[in-house]
Specification:
This protein is mainly alpha-helical. The protein contains 6 helices and no strands.
Length: 118
């Protein structure tokens, strides 16, 4: 893969995840604990988080997006992200993601995928 294609792919990942989760740059910045300007720079320059934890978080968010699309379809994914998850005090998956509890969202999706969810 050429460098230009790799850079375009990196940029696409951050943009895609943010768009699919329907998060503003400000909200995604809170998830990563960076500034909105940093998110803008990642998208414009095709950068990724520099630290391993940030890259893992981006991969986890991408996995949430991909699994939710498989389980619920594109429109159903948006509904899933906006509806409260049982057992999380009325928090929606998007709120859990914003609170840095994306692993709980991934677990709920995995349960739905396996057919054992609510």
């Amino acid at each position: 893969m050429t460098s230009a294609i790799l850079e375009q792919t990196k940029s696409y990942e951050v943009k895609r995840v943010r768009a699919d989760l329907d998060l503003s740059r400000e909200k995604l910045a809170r998830v990563f604990d960076v500034s909105a300007k940093t998110i803008e720079r990642w998208e414009a320059k095709g950068s990724l988080p520099k630290d391993a934890a940030g890259r893992r978080l981006l991969a986890e968010l991408r996995e949430i997006v991909d699994l939710a699309a498989i389980v619920f379809g594109k429109e159903g994914m948006r509904r899933f992200l906006a509806l409260p998850l049982p057992g999380y005090d009325g928090a929606t998956p998007l709120q859990l993601i914003e609170r840095r509890h994306s692993s709980a969202v991934l677990a709920a999706l995995a349960a739905d995928y396996d057919g054992i969810g609510p």
